[in-house]
Amino acid sequence: MEAPVPLPVERAIHKLGADISLARRRRHISQSSLAERMGASLSTVRRMEKGDVRVPIHFFARALHVFGEIQALENLLDTAKDDIGLTLMDERLPKRVRSKPASSGAL
């Protein structure tokens, strides 16, 4: 049995689905046309727009690609801007770095 989906996750997927629906309608694209462009079924597009958490993420990515917004997915967790991760790494840095003793052998 699968673990229940946390409410914040459910809300985020529901919002993403609603945003995809709005973006589609603003571009005057039908659900069937979006499905065709995504390589998905019409029922998948309908479920995605309703915020069904069982729709695989690659369909959301395909919709973003159709709308020219795939970089939004690429930048969701940009490790260069991960303040918490960078802070944790900085806390583990040594207080000082010592030079290694010179080796006494020939090169």
Average pLDDT rating: 92
Total number of beta strands: 0
Strand content: under 5%
Task: Name the shape in a single word.
Answer: elongated
Q: Class in CATH?
A: Mainly Alpha
Number of helices: 6
CATH topology: 434 Repressor (Amino-terminal Domain)
SSE pattern: HHHHHH
Report the sheet with the most strands, covering strand number, pairing sense and barrel closure.
none
Q: Please give the radius of gyration in angstroms.
A: 23 Å
N→C terminal distance = 63 Å
CATH architecture: Orthogonal Bundle
Determine the fraction of residues in helical runs and give it as a percent range. 55-70%
By helix and strand content, what is the structural category?
Answer: mainly alpha
Domain HTH cro/C1-type: 20-73
InterPro entries: Cro/C1-type_HTH, Lambda_DNA-bd_dom_sf
GO molecular function, one term: DNA binding
Protein name: Helix-turn-helix protein
